[in-house]
Every structure is written in C-alpha cells, then in structure tokens.
Here is the input.
Amino acid sequence: MFEGTGVDAQRARYERPELAWMFFRNFLRHPATVASIVPSSRFLTRCLADIARRDRPRTVVELGPGTGCTTRALLDILPREGRLLAIDVEEEFVVNLRNEPDERLLVQHGRADCLNEALLAHRLAHPDLIVSGIPFSTMPAQEGRRILQQVWTSLAPGGRFLAYQVRGHVARYAREWMGTPQVRMEVRNVPPMRIYCWRKPAGAA
Here is the structure.
C-alpha cells in the first residue's frame, strides 16, 4: 500500500476507463512521445514509489506523467511541504493533471529538454529525485543526450534519477554523465518495463 489517506480512492481516479482511453488516443496521435498504449500498471508505480521512498525526497520532477498514475504514487510518498513538478508535452495530459487538487503538484506544459527553465520558472531547488517515463528509444540520440545532461546537472548531489523504459537507449545516452545504472525488471506491466536507477555522487557539482 502507498502511504497517505484515501489511497484506494485516488488510485481508482487514475485508473478510470476514460483515462485509459485518453492515453490510448494520445498514443495513436503521437506514438513517438507516448511510451505505451496503456498507462503504467499499479505494480510499476508501486515499484517506482518504493525505490523513491528510501530517500525521502522533498523536491521531485516527473518527465512524461501521462494521465497521472505514477504522479499519484509519487505524491503519496512526498512530505506535506514537498513539491512535485510534472512536465508533459501532450496538452491533454497537462489539462487533466491540472485538475488534481493536491497543492504540492505543479504542472508544466513543455518538452523535457526545457527542464532547467521549468525549475527556474517554478522557483524550485535542485530536485532530490527525477523520474522519467518518456521513451528515449523513439527520439533522436542528440535530443536524448541533451535531456539527460540537463537531468544530471539539475539533480541535487546525492539525488536519484529513475527511468522506466521498454528499451535500453537511456542507459547508452546517459553513460557519458551518469555511468552504469542499476537495473530491475517489472514484468507486471504492459509492456514489461526496465527500471534504470542512477544516484548522483554526494560531492558532485
């Protein structure tokens, strides 16, 4: 179970059929930017939240929140004074997330390679955790490396970067800055996902 009150009700909100249809519709329109035909499963979101919970993050960024399944799981582990900045390029997803009443959630319409600008716009400190569901395998390599360089430079020393992906492109693109990740598999998702995890050294600039 996730922490927090009313978790089952909140989870049900993000698993409504109309949201699954919204996700599928956006996949058909923009298959290069929407990673899957269905939202993340509760098993995947629980796995991500369990990893994130270990560090007790206070400032979190989510790249590619979609309909909000992972977003809700991350909010459930945030302290009351925490902040979660969700950035998505798909306008329909952004409009949906802006209906979320949780004041800790900040929603930005834009591309992931505008991460630094988004942090400045919302006056947020270097995040303790960045979680990404955007599909690095469908974007040009130069764009993927540009995003990952911003992820690494914006991440707080000692912070963690999690990327859940079908393919391994993110590990190749990130190697220059982040080194070799820890990897675990979550098969209870459609499609099965690899979860890549990096931690920025505590003494890094």
Observations:
- The first helix runs from residue 7 to 14.
